[in-house]
Batch of 2 targets.
Target 1
Amino acid sequence: MSQLVGINLIPCNGELYLIKDFYGFHECDLLFKQLQSELGWQEEAIFIYGKRLKVPRLMCWYGDAEAAYRYSGVNHQPLPWTLALQAVREKIEQRCECAFNSVLANLYRDGQDSMGCHADDEKELGQNPVIASLSLGDERLFKLHHKSGKEKLDIVLGHGDLLVMAGEMQHHWVHSVPKTKKVKSPRINLTFRKIMLG
Ligand SMILES: O=C(O)CCC(=O)C(=O)O
Ligand SMILES: [Mn+2]
């Protein structure tokens, strides 16, 4: 995959590529506004030891009808592709030369919204998934660290940047988008995935 998407940013156990400005600034502005207003944003809850906790961001799930997926302990039946999401999917598929059948959309309303440390290692995603993640809106820090080694990496994800995770990365690395006091305006992140069917 490397010739298509640049140099691998992590030193071992996986592949990570950053394509800055995959979408131009004005196109991103339009896309951000459109997605913010037309997607079916939901506040999800998770249950930990029987306690109901709000997920600190809004989320929604789009994809092919059969691409159902469990995320944060919740079953997600995808909503049908919107024209805008379909167009983004096609542009990313062309660049990555791989197919995606679903997208998880996250809306971080401000710096208090976040995503905890995790790997996208659900079995529905297959052994070594390619996950392509488009950022729109305010910049946020994307933090990664190796599960058993000392390697760490911080990447700033800005308006229009595309991050691609591949290879054995989800087995060995975890990632997060921490809270920050610096950020005041919203960010949308779209993570395109391929759910293995049947
Ligand atoms: O918002 C981001 O950049 C990360 C999203 C993410 O890790 C996920 O949806 O699994
Ligand atoms: Mn993730």
Target 2
Amino acid sequence: MSHDWQSLRIEGIYRQPVEGFAMLRVKLPAGVLSAGQARGIGALAHRFARGALHLTTRGSIELHWVRGEDLAAVKGGVAALGLTSRGACGGAVRGITCASQGNAAFPQVESLARQLQRQFTGNPRFERLPKKFKIGIFPDTVDRGHLIQDVGLVLKGSCYDVWIAGGLGREPQPGFLLEEEVSPGRIIPLIEAILNVYAAHAPAGKRLKHLARELGEEALRKLIAAQPSATQELTPPAGLPDSFVPAPTDSTRLEAPVFGGELSAEELVRLAGFAEIHGGGWLIINADQNVAFQIPGDVAPARQELIGLGFGGDGRVEQICFRICPGSHECRMGLAPTRDVARQVIDRLGLGAIAARWAISGCQNSCAQPQLADYGIMTTGLVKGDDGNRSPRFDLHRNQGEGLGEVLKRNLSTEELLEAVSSLDYAKAAGDGFR
Ligand code: SF4
């Protein structure tokens, strides 16, 4: 069966490196899903995706190795769970990411993420965009995630600072502050104004950051301000709250570390059972590709149970925070086997590495956001050796808490990369304290 892969992107579907297979990405507003939904996703992964799934840095879930002929059944299965993959790839508003899990304001953020997903998913006005459009909501600017969104919303009291036109990829560009302290009632109309300008003025295949570069910040501001909805204020939605995760003020956060976001269907089902007993029935996929829970009761037995389920031991892999994109293991763009390289890097790191955030991307699309990690590894290309084999080259990035970080070392072979990480200060304690 042949497929028009390009037109399937809007359904959250990408081709995989092997002909006839595809990845389908499920959007989760603020990374939240219920235990029942997790069981359902686990069942779909078991039946259609070789029994495995991938947690992304944007809090989505990807099912890989779905056969082309099974895509419609998987889409139906996702819909039956009250979830969607619509717009998770292609020129559309992607899943609403959120790094506020554990923050006291998370219920406010979860509600807004759900409202934004409802407004912009499957809405013909906001599909067929020039390229992807990413929205993220953040409790503060500490992790700098707001800098890499098309629209980054940063909580300020009950309002939001609105940053726009950021992005990574081959031409990384930090976003700029469009407006301070925007009231919640203005967020949707303001994003509509930004989207209208983007759709009308950006060339096909270009992000909002390109438009900002081409026009300049001031011209882009003026275009947005001229949109009728830019100053519109909606009345708050009536009805019950849109937040379901136990409030951080009445619960304790617990996290199940998941190496590289790689989870088996069976593990997800186990975590769903854990969420039902301890987490109020809700799971959160966070930006570090882990599964988090808010535990309303006594957290000590819950922590022990989680370890008993196989999550959160004291080994090196469990303790070092390492965001990992699928790389050449599963992505057509991937130039390096990211998980293998990450394991090799982890083997060279000492106890001090626990305090740092690591990331590796299999190509310059930067899906693991290496420029935001304390240490980030970007695969930049392939080089043909004397034996005719092509091997990956890496840049090692360092971020010291400002902007998108800088390149520490360029064009490293795998061995040179391992040497470079071994010479970092905390690598000298390698082995100490780890199992
Ligand atoms: S960074 Fe590149 S290799 Fe990794 S998931 Fe994104 S597109 Fe694929």
